[in-house]
Amino acid sequence: MIAPHKTLSVPGLEAVYDALATAIDQAGADKAQLFLVKLALLNANALGTQEQFQQHVQVALQNL
């Protein structure tokens, strides 16, 4: 049986956004890209599938 897909509420997304912005500031301009790559790899591992991560990448690239 497949577990139901969980999503964050709007307040949850806002909290994640705030935490991400704070962490990027803490990393500093010279390390922000490295931090984001490390975070993406950790989240890809948590997702558990390469395909799902690639779908997320494509969605994130939209409307930049």
Molecular structure report:
By secondary structure, the protein is mainly alpha-helical. It has one domain. Helix content is 72%, strand content 0%. It contains three helices and no strands. The model has no long low-confidence stretch (mean pLDDT 94).
Provide a concise account of the structure shown.
With 64 residues, the chain is mainly alpha-helical.
Work out the radius of gyration: 14 Å
Level of helix content?
over 70%
Distance between the termini: 37 Å
The quaternary state of the protein chains shown equals: single chain
What order do the SSEs take from the amino end to the carboxyl end, as H and E? HHH
Largest sheet: none
Uncertain residue segments: none
Can you tell me the overall shape? Answer: globular
Number of helices: 3
Key phrases:
64 residues, 72% helix, DUF2783 domain-containing protein, 3 helices, mainly alpha
What is the element layout, followed by pairings?
Layout: H1 10-27, H2 32-47, H3 50-61
